[in-house]
Amino acid sequence: KQAQYAALREVPAVTLDDQRVNLQINAGLLFDLPHLKQSGADGIGLFRTELQFMISETFPRLEQQTKLYKSILDQAAGRPVVFRSLDVGGDKVIPYFRGGAEENPALGWRAIRMALDKPAVFRTQIRALLRAAQGREMRIMLPMISDVSEFEAARGLIDHELTLLKTHGRPEPSKLMVGAMVEVPSLLWQLDHLLPLTDFVSVGSNDLLQFLFAADRSNERVSSRFDSLGPTALRALRHIVREAERFKTPLTLCGEMAGKPLEAMALIGLGFRSISMAPASVGPVKAMVLSLDASSLQTRLEEMLDRRTTSLREDLKRFAAETGV
Ligand code: PEP
Ligand code: MG
After folding, report:
1. CA distances (Å), origin 184, targets 95, 146, 168, 262
2. In the prediction, which pLDDT does 103 show?
């Protein structure tokens, strides 16, 4: 199997009915970058910047951050990289930074909430990202947005940093794109307001499903109580696809679902054409894509999605077996 996947490295991920699917990897350290070439992925759909903060003993300084982001862009060698701004709190702890114990950390003071309340850390990170670009494209993604106003406020801080960069005569990014993660259910009902403002969005299905089903992703007793291939999850995802199509906003999904071939197949059936996953999943997912007829899956899913109350997992397995996926 490994040899079979390696042979697919240079093969573009195109379905039998000619749908190109963008396959990207999730990463968080410089150490992950060789996987980009090895896997033959199209880019880095999620770079988790908190990793540098989590393995460090103190806050990484502006220079250290800039150096890392620059090396990441150097090694990506022109393939797109989406840098997610710091997402700490919840399950992601940094030892030297304690916001105080919280009863419900997943629902607490984390990610963009921290960034907006204590903008110094966020602004330093944005400054590092903008400095690292040096004539290259910079894509910044904001985690845990639950209200359009948070995106607007963060975007304001980013624009301010860009102005400062220009004022100081430093090299600018050739292009700056700012996107949001769709991982808090409240955002599902604001997409018509959010999408016109964002350059792209990426679904964080790990958090989106945890919040949608009120089931802690790190608690095994409850995390498997719902099925990501059940009608509720799939209908929520379909809603996002439809809205992104309506507003012509580039859409990706970067949660764990994307790396499981059956789940990835369902995502393509819903209309996703870009997904981001652990590097080891690129081979198996690409093999699935190459043997899939996306439009017949799409038709099959449409037939089932509004009628069913139970998981579509078995139906999807049957579809895959019948059609040789
Ligand atoms: C997600 O929530 O699905 C996601 C990709 O981000 P993280 O797993 O880092 O929370
Ligand atoms: Mg998340």
Report:
1. 25, 6, 37, 24
2. 87
Furthest-apart CA atoms within the chain: distance in Å: 61
Which ligand is the nearest neighbour of the Cα of 258?
1
Give nearest CA residue, ligand 1 atom 10. 207
How far is ligand 1, taken at its centre, from the CA of residue 254, in Å?
7
Q: Which residues keep their CB under 5 angstroms from ion ligand 2?
A: 183, 204, 207
- Ligand 1 atom nearest to CA at 210: 2
**246 CB-contact burial (10 Å; exposed 0-12 / middle 13-18 / buried 19+):** exposed
Residue 1: per-residue pLDDT: 83
Predicted TM-score (pTM) of the model is: 0.97
* DSSP notation for 63-112: HHHHHHHHHHHHHHTTS-EEEEP---BTTB--TT------SSGGGSS-HH
- What per-residue string of b and e applies to 64-74 under the rule 16 or more CB within 10 Å gives b? ebbbbbbebbe
Residue type, 27: A
Nearest atom in ligand 1 to 205's CA: 3
Averaged confidence pLDDT in the chain: 95
Q: 263-303: per-residue pLDDT in tens? A: 999 999 999 999 999 999 999 999 999 999 999 999 999 99
Comparing CA positions, the residue from 147, 55, 58 lying closest to residue 96 is: 58
Q: What is the pLDDT of residues 59-83, one digit of tens each?
A: 999 999 999 999 999 999 999 999 9
Is residue 132 a contact partner of residue 155, using CB atoms and an 8 Å limit? no
Alpha-carbon distance of 50 to 25, in angstroms, equals 16
pLDDT exceeding 70 applies to what percent of the chain? 99
Within its chain, how far is the Cα of 236 from the centroid? 16
- Quickly count: other Cβ atoms within 10 Å of residue 96's Cβ: 9
Query: Among residues 62, 323, 71, 207, which one has the least CA distance to residue 315?
Result: 323
pLDDT, residue 17, reads 98
Q: How far apart are CA 26 and CA 215, in angstroms?
A: 23
Provide ipTM, 2 decimals: 0.99
Nearest CA to ligand 1 atom 6: 204
Atom of ligand 1 nearest to the CA of 254: 5
